[in-house]
Amino acid sequence: MTSTIAESATRRLPPPGRLVRLWPRVKPYRGMLALATLALVVSGILALAFPMAVRYLLDAAFVDRDRAMLDRIALGLVLLFTVQAVLNYAQAYLLSAVGEQSVAGLRKELFARLLEMPPGFFAERRTGELTSRLTADVGLLQGVLSHQISEFSRQILSLVGGVVLLTYLQPRLTLTALAVSPLVVGSAIFFGRRLRVMTTGVQDRLAEATAVAEEAFSQIRTVQSFVQEPTERARYAERVAASVRTALKRARVRGVFFGMLTLSTFAGITFVLWQGGLLVLEGELTAGSLVSFLLYTITIAASIGALASSFSAYQEAVGAAERVFEILEMDPAIADPPRPAQLAAPVTGRVAFERVFFRYHEDDSQPWTLEGIDLEVAPGEIVALVGPSGGGKTTLVSLLPRFWDVNRGHVRLDGHDVRSLRLTDLRGAIGVVPQEPALFSGTIGENIAYARPGASAADIEAAARAAHAHEFIERLPIGYETLVGERGVKLSGGQRQRVAIARAILKDPAVLVLDEATSNLDTESEQLIEDALSRLLVGRTTLIIAHRLSTVRRADRLVALDRGRIVEEGTHAELLARGGLYARLYQRQFREEITEMSPSI
After folding, report:
1. Do 540 and 508 touch, CB atoms closer than 8 A?
2. pTM
């Protein structure tokens, strides 16, 4: 069976039961939860006392005609409502606090788990869809924790208490009042399951719409340069319309459910009123007893209706929980080993690829992306990887920091299989300068310090000077505090690259990976970056993905890859003399560049 990248990147753990999985996130706040529960119980008991107090109040007015008793009961009711209001405030605040803090913890846990996922996981998922799980789905769970739990508990207390008191007051009418319950409960179960499925569908459609928006925002220059705003509006509108269609189907199901609930509930109340009226006419009930019984009946009916509504909300939250816990219950395939080996300090930077085979899909019918790679890089050696596009150069260097794991063979750092090392130790020893540097939307200083949080201003400036970045930074209005904008859009390509090099210098890694850091730059920027790189490479094991002659000249050794295999290996002069793949690439790609340089090159 064909496995996707995401399937190979993660392994599922056995799922525990639905919303019960939230308990570990709520447990730290169980003290507040206990206080909220106590306030809820006392408030519920006071609410159940109200119909009984009304009975005595009406009997005092219409049967006993006792003014003093009437005044005392009215005053007692005011006091009862005051205490109940305070208790309602306490339980509402406490439960909201528990819900907010629990969901905040859940969001952080979900975000942390996403950060642990390997690149293959993100290759198969849109960023907007994952963002939707952090926002919309977790928001539904927040509603359950902050409101639905308290409402459910309150209605259970009202239902049980109301039934007990009804039975005590008038057993004959209790059966009539409860006759509607099986219909309501059955409807809740039937419609609740459908609502859960539909809610999951609504969340999926909203996630797709969010993904489209995020994609358009991140590529806004491309969208506008190709005048594709109408296309993006149409794509987003289509996804929103799909979510609306699914939501309307859910609304119809919910409408039928609550319509049946309303009909059955009020039909039951009407029948109880009629039967109770007959008992009053026969002298078996006082008016106060009938009103009290009616209030309890309404309380029970309202509780059943509210419970049905809570069950509906619960089913919707279950759908959201399944999407959230689908991520939380994934075990990253690339993770720390149970007993990690220790890298000796300092790391020398000896790198070895031993009979490495790798493919992105586990399907045996798919060709190998890398096949039988044997390569050793000595400490401090600079090796350039050359070859046509798609030959496997980027894939090979991605195996070193374990962005992917080999299918067969070994990748070693200082003699240790990289799979035997802690990821923090392994990746901490490796620096990467990509062709398109990734900057965050903070300040220039923060972007450089990303390599070493807590670095001093002097260290940051020293790294910037070594990368020839200090010159342009000090010309900016607020220097290192200048915001670079999302993805560094406020800086030129050369400036972004120099900031990325400064970040690598500050990290001071033993092994450096360069993905053609000087391509697509103007001559002045290239010269500055070449000088910065010459400082950065001193004493470091370096793997360079090379396309330009200036980069190749810097290497101690060249390794040519084609279709996932090493086809040539040697110095620049040796490979040119062989007249193989490298020589053909050289003639095709480097001819114009060589004419601009000194003949001694």
Report:
1. no
2. 0.69
